[in-house]
Amino acid sequence: MISGGALTAVSTWMGGKLTWLYQLSKAGKLCVPAMNVNDSVTKQKFDNLYCCRESILDGLKRTTDVMFGGKQVVVCGYGEVGKGCCAALKALGAIVYITEIDPICALQACMDGFRVVKLNEVIRQVDVVITCTGNKNVVTREHLDRMKNSCIVCNMGHSNTEIDVTSLRTPELTWERVRSQVDHVIWPDGKRVVLLAEGRLLNLSCSTVPTFVLSITATTQALALIELYNAPEGRYKQDVYLLPKKMDEYVASLHLPSFDAHLTELTDDQAKYLGLNKNGPFKPNYYR
Amino acid sequence: MISGGALTAVSTWMGGKLTWLYQLSKAGKLCVPAMNVNDSVTKQKFDNLYCCRESILDGLKRTTDVMFGGKQVVVCGYGEVGKGCCAALKALGAIVYITEIDPICALQACMDGFRVVKLNEVIRQVDVVITCTGNKNVVTREHLDRMKNSCIVCNMGHSNTEIDVTSLRTPELTWERVRSQVDHVIWPDGKRVVLLAEGRLLNLSCSTVPTFVLSITATTQALALIELYNAPEGRYKQDVYLLPKKMDEYVASLHLPSFDAHLTELTDDQAKYLGLNKNGPFKPNYYR
Amino acid sequence: MISGGALTAVSTWMGGKLTWLYQLSKAGKLCVPAMNVNDSVTKQKFDNLYCCRESILDGLKRTTDVMFGGKQVVVCGYGEVGKGCCAALKALGAIVYITEIDPICALQACMDGFRVVKLNEVIRQVDVVITCTGNKNVVTREHLDRMKNSCIVCNMGHSNTEIDVTSLRTPELTWERVRSQVDHVIWPDGKRVVLLAEGRLLNLSCSTVPTFVLSITATTQALALIELYNAPEGRYKQDVYLLPKKMDEYVASLHLPSFDAHLTELTDDQAKYLGLNKNGPFKPNYYR
Amino acid sequence: MISGGALTAVSTWMGGKLTWLYQLSKAGKLCVPAMNVNDSVTKQKFDNLYCCRESILDGLKRTTDVMFGGKQVVVCGYGEVGKGCCAALKALGAIVYITEIDPICALQACMDGFRVVKLNEVIRQVDVVITCTGNKNVVTREHLDRMKNSCIVCNMGHSNTEIDVTSLRTPELTWERVRSQVDHVIWPDGKRVVLLAEGRLLNLSCSTVPTFVLSITATTQALALIELYNAPEGRYKQDVYLLPKKMDEYVASLHLPSFDAHLTELTDDQAKYLGLNKNGPFKPNYYR
Questions:
Q1: What pLDDT score does A100 carry?
Q2: ipTM higher than threshold 0.85
Q3: Is D69's CB within 8 Å of A113's CB?
Q4: What is the pLDDT of residues B66-94, one digit of tens each?
Q5: Closest chain A residue to D108, measured at CA
Q6: Which residues are in the S-adenosyl-L-homocysteine hydrolase NAD binding domain (chains A, B, C, D) (predicted)?
Q7: Labelling D157: which of A48, A179, C154, D124 has CA 20 to 30 A away?
Q8: Bridge partners for A75 per DSSP
Q9: CB-based contacts of D234: which residues, under 8 Å, 6+ apart?
């Protein structure tokens, strides 16, 4: 049993904290075991992919009433959050472009029907710019200068660093608050860029998080804490761990009844054939 | 450097072999290092998800000319192959049901808009049954007995064990070969079940594999062999390894020009912020 | 030239008025020419199909914060409004059932991947009920009695007659206003039904109408009035007319630049081959 | 009752014949009544939209084994056939551009998430060119000269006039038949264009027509002939008529049981409210 201070990390809300946890661990400065709950499958898929698929639409509508059909949108980053945003926008008739640094995600974007471009190639023509990278200064002042009038800019990634908002706090630009969470930044020639939530997270600032997603994430965190607390001495050292697959599966199974979903059980013979326990875990730990 | 006998495994074609490799390793009987190429991201996504999304349609059309619109289909298994099949069939207007043993995959199916059922709940009403489980005896004689007339049954998973075809080789049933790879199995009351490829893999037997997918998979395998061959003594022991992330990314990057996709490069500042090398790898090894 | 009183009708906001106009005309009591702008292609597609595809999501989110993924939804009516609602909900992972009276629309629903059912077949299991019929008493007290706890009920069709809200104003039911436009109607056993906008139009009461759609509809109406006003004596009698195709096309062409869309022009040779004027109209009047 | 010679027209197979019928009628040279079955809703939607949504994929796969994911495709014409082709290709991960002459169809393409371009804007970059216009010389020798190596060209529209195939029968180009229905046309610099079915209809030449669609179309034609035959003297003059709505609905209702679809019936009260007969027709004649 571990006493005191067990940590769990959830990146949508703790962002850079996760990297920081791994850095502490590498430096040998982590003084308690920690669980990286953020990278469990249920957290990744439900909090990021499925939740953002809905909150990108909700956040944009509540702030700008924009119509999605026919709009040209560039999404920076095609991780889980980016994939969710793109799926929703494409389904509602937007034309979506992707920027990516990772060739695997870029190739997935191609297969999903999106053109992969550098931001500069499309910045003059798009109606909406959305960042989902976890990075900083993805949208720079130079990009903002080149956007067309009425372009909407927002951040679905992490923290408030993805759009270089500081670069917009200069004397030649006028800020006009047109609604809660919505600023018009006005260039000397009259061009307006519509900045949402001052570059902070759109999904947390301008849309709601469904109770279902909160339930998934909270359950995952609670189970991680219980596991750390109950684990026999020595199971966890002063390091960062992924949530054991079996707990990840348990979180999911607790939420199936909401959808009246009926799981199939393995027969003894099938379990033996697959080399699995009938109660799981059903997949290797690296499976997503 | 390793001499001789380096193994690489690709599951679409080697199926159970992969489990067997891990079993050998566990038993201490693996006499060379092996790379589990099958579970690299490029293999998983491109060979399984994206390729099967197309070959399920192709395989069904070439063998049966079935119209997808309005058809009720049950897909057993919602892993990468199942996800690909379901996405394609849903897009073309089929109504798709899922069976799953794994609660995480089941919950994903719910989020993607599919009802998760036990096979018995829908077996009397569906027009098509597709297995993608990697398991055996998923479709049993009892299920086959309950299918409606003209129901199409096929396997996209692995090997030829998913449908219990042996149980159909009994005197009271008549087999009629109506076309290459297509058998009508006829019950005494005249009911016909349309069995494709005698339960072997539909995507390999009845559709083609696009050269793009072959290129991805072959590149991954070749790189794995080169890595095993070139690795300094001691890097790989007599165990099963995942392909290093960086190679996985390299495979992807080699295929981006076919789509005229343009990667974004990290600035020095951004790379430092993310704690990444500008040339990758960009994601932790467990990322999919 | 016609003096005074020219009428134009737009059904999303005038609903039954349109039927009434045709009835007046049949009865010989229409005293001025009228244009049925509602049934022009641009009005039908943009105000109904494309606008409702977005406002159903917006209206539901703003009032209930419901997550769409995995939800079971029944949509009553598969006309343009129903088609729009269903496309959006399906894309976001809802499982959608349709009720229809018209076999052509029902068959389209099948082809689009929806099960066509009677309301009673699914009323106990669905999470959301949406009416888009133009009819009255589509959702009756009997249906409301059988809904499960927390079921959301709303109207996207016309007027406030589609849900029999009057039947809920009885002593044994308690109404609780939980938010603007959101009532919980509470049964004696504690079951709550979530009624939106007291059965009035969700898209007008609880979501916004994009300026693009307003522009389309207003342009159509303005052109109809100009045409009626400018038409030579005798072109229009005391009857109900559809907007001439050419004007419908003109409305569309005025809105193409917002999307940077580039029309192709017919060559003389092609125009001759098709028997068309190079400037349109390009389709017969009944084309949608 | 009409004796002899009643005509029905079905455009997928009779294409230009339909225009010709209207021209005959205009010129007063039509000597029998004719029904334009092609423009009935069931024919338009099922034979064109829903059938082509499947046959474009089938035709391309059987002839070229092309992978759709990530491919850039231009579809000329966004009528019912074009809409079907685009929906299918988009769903399978292709990036689709549209060319259109009609602003209404062009605006629909925008709303559905496609960029509307002139053919010249994208001809150098696309992997596949598909014509669905009903027009002639839509793809000219000049376009063919500018296509990139391996570009696939095919026709889903009508007749064999949409692609100017004649212009490719010149001495400097070499034709190589690589498979039934597939020609490589080779430019002096080695560039190959992949021409399918020599520019004839891909869906008829290289894919199959599902029995369901044949049944819809044949039923429509048969009913039209029966109606012309049985109609009381004087109902039909020597002109071209659309199929009465009620018959269109009847065709649809005959096909609902294949999908286990259950129609809802109007109550007397509802029928009265809507001013409809409980047995239909349920929509005005111009409704699609």
A1: 98
A2: yes
A3: yes
A4: 999 999 999 999 999 999 999 999 999 99
A5: A70
A6: 48-209
A7: D124
A8: A98, A130
A9: none
